[in-house]
Write a structure and sequence with these properties.
Layout: E1 2-4, E2 6-8, E3 11-13, E4 20-25, E5 30-36, H1 40-59, H2 62-78, H3 80-91, H4 95-113, H5 115-118, E6 123-128, E7 131-139, E8 142-146, H6 154-165, E9 169-173, H7 180-191, E10 199-201, H8 206-214, E11 218-224, H9 227-239, E12 243-247, E13 252-256, H10 262-274, E14 284-290, H11 292-307, H12 329-345, E15 348-351, E16 370-373, H13 380-383, E17 390-396, H14 399-408, E18 411-412, E19 414-418, H15 422-431, E20 436-439, E21 455-456, E22 459-460, H16 467-473, E23 475-483
Parallel strand pairs: 1-5, 8-9, 8-11, 9-10, 11-12, 13-14, 13-19, 14-17, 16-17, 19-20
Antiparallel strand pairs: 2-3, 4-5, 6-7, 7-23, 12-22, 15-16, 18-21
Helix pairs in contact: 1-8, 2-4, 2-7, 3-4, 4-6, 10-11
Bound molecules: nicotinamide-adenine-dinucleotide.
């Protein structure tokens, strides 16, 4: 069986740790590969490679760093189908969804291609007589990235293209559940002309993460994953003096106003709730219906749509399914236990995803599309992130009630409102305590040239991923105040300097 190792200093290297994790094909339940779980020493070797490469790479001109990114983008396009196949075979999402993930990741590379423009900084002439001020945006140094399983290509691509373009070097720690893509990305970067050591991949688990959080040579850590680990990474990394951006879990609400176009709502909800089997941090897992009339009509439409859904392996013969399996047996069992919990808590099970099998893929980790009605805020199925194909309907009477509900939830990643009423949409976008908001758009994932990030317990740290925040995160600003005096000037050394 193939064992995936590390990519350090421009080479694929085997791990000597003696520890491995299993990689499965979620559609069949078969183990297809194993991945090394690197030792602390091996993780430190990757940091050494990044540290040794830093001086030279940070001195490369932004234009030449950008040229590497242009070549990398072209290689990503050329290899897109191969990469998408890897995603589907290890993650399980359907092939066209894997291609979509890559497109969104490539867009961040396109953003990073513009780095000479993005690093221009600020300038003020004549802040005092004959005195100019300008800023330098300098690389922070060795950066680390730690990724979740649900976007094995896109999330690493949120991080390292911006970091590298800004002149940093990088150590990537992929999810041990679907680790092949980042190794392939490392090879493509090398082919694009990136010098050895500038980008390294270390596969592993907590042992590697803890080294990345404590080694003093690492200056910045980007993390995406579940909230408890995000909080741990933020606290530990910060205590060790690093800048950290740590994005966590979510429970995203869609508010459905009585005047919403319910065909648009049900069509949008199907993709937002069940696409990628609900394993998206921006998936909609709660629909908040304002008024029983809207709720009843919406449920009727959703039931019809669910009955027509195709669920199956993400790769295969015939028409592509809408939804594939979950990542692992363990995760599928967790989602199934949430369905049991919802029933016990008194929610009405409209569509039951339990006991769901796909003919020919009986051992795959499938859970069918599940719909609960009459979910209330006290229920665990409402409060907790399920991360599976389970949609809850919560009924409220007014817009104000809907807004309060969303604002009181501990997570604040994404949300949307569906309405024909501009005033309601305006109030919602301005008053909701959530980082990414859609108006008649179900999954409002910002484009690469904007920044991605939630509020509340969906993020730890002040700066979001990619876009302007990404550039700020991966650079240190230095402000220079300069004059070129002619002859001797009168200088008062003893009072606070002020500009005349
Ligand atoms: P996870 O938190 O289990 O793992 C994320 C990373 O942390 C992995 O690389 C893993 O190896 C590492 N890790 C796991 N346990 C650790 C520990 N005890 N100490 C140190 N490191 C540890 O998350 P996951 O299950 O891979 O991904 C799903 C989660 O990610 C969901 O909660 C989802 O909402 C979240 N997510 C959030 C966003 C966002 O932008 N906010 C995007 C994608 C996914």
């Amino acid at each position: 069986m193939q064992t995936l190792g590390n990519f350090i200093n421009g080479n694929n290297v085997e791990s000597q740790s003696g520890r491995v994790g299993a990689v499965y094909d979620p559609a069949t339940g078969e183990q297809t590969k194993q991945v090394c779980l690197s030792s602390a020493q091996e993780t430190a070797q990757a940091i050494t490679a990044a540290h040794d490469a830093l001086a030279e790479w940070s001195a490369v001109t932004p234009l030449n760093r950008s040229r590497v990114m242009f070549k990398f983008k072209a290689l990503l396009e050329e290899n897109k189908d191969e990469l998408a196949l890897l995603i589907t075979s290890e993650h399980g999402k359907v092939f066209s969804d894997a291609q979509g993930e890559l497109t969104r990741g490539i867009e961040v590379v396109e953003f990073a291609c513009g780095i000479p423009h993005l690093l221009k900084g600020e300038q003020s002439m004549n802040v005092g007589r004959g005195v100019d001020s300008f800023s330098l945006m300098q690389p922070v140094g060795v950066c680390a990235g730690i990724a979740p399983f649900n976007f094995p290509a896109m999330v690493p691509l949120w991080m390292f293209p911006v970091a590298l373009a800004c002149g940093n070097t990088f150590v990537m720690k992929p999810s041990e559940k679907d680790p092949s893509v980042p190794l392939k990305l490392a090879e493509l970067l090398k082919e694009a002309g990136l010098p050895d050591g500038v980008f390294n991949v270390v596969n592993g688990d907590k042992e590697s993460v803890d080294v990345l959080l404590s080694d003093p040579r690492v200056q910045a850590v980007s993390f995406v994953g579940s909230t408890p680990i995000a909080e741990y990474v933020y606290k530990t990394g910060s205590e060790n003096g690093k800048r950290v951006q740590a994005l966590g879990g979510a429970k995203n609400h869609m508010v459905v106003m009585p005047d919403a176009d319910l065909d648009l709502v049900s069509g949008s909800l199907m993709g937002a709730a069940y696409g990628s089997a609900g394993e998206r941090c921006m998936a909609i897992s709660v629909a908040v219906c304002v008024g029983d009339e809207a709720a009843d009509a919406l449920i009727e439409k959703l039931e019809t749509e669910i009955a027509n859904m195709r669920v199956g392996a993400g790769l295969g013969e015939g028409e592509e399914p809408h939804m594939g399996p979950l990542i692992s047996r363990q995760h599928a069992d967790k989602v199934l236990s949430y369905i049991e919990t919802g029933i016990k808590e008194g929610a009405r099970l409209v569509s039951d995803g339990r006991n769901f099998t796909v003919t020919g893929n009986e051992q795959g980790y499938f859970v069918g599309p599940t719909l609960f009605d009459n979910v209330t805020p006290g229920m665990r199925v409402y409060q907790e992130e399920i991360f599976g194909p389970v949609l809850s309907i919560v009924r409220v009477n007014t817009f104000e009630e809907a807004l309060k509900l969303v604002n009181e939830h501990e997570y604040g990643n994404g949300t949307s409102i569906f309405t024909a009423n501009g005033e309601a949409a305006h109030m919602y976008t301005h008053q909701v305590q959530v980082g990414m908001v859609g108006v008649n758009v179900p999954i409002p994932v910002p484009m690469a040239f904007h920044s991605f990030g939630g509020w509340k317990r969906s993020i730890f740290g002040p700066l979001n991923m990619h876009g302007p925040d990404g550039v700020r995160f991966y650079t240190k600003m230095k402000t220079v105040t300069a004059r070129w005096p002619k002859g001797q000037q009168n200088i008062n050394h003893y009072t606070m300097p002020t500009m005349k």
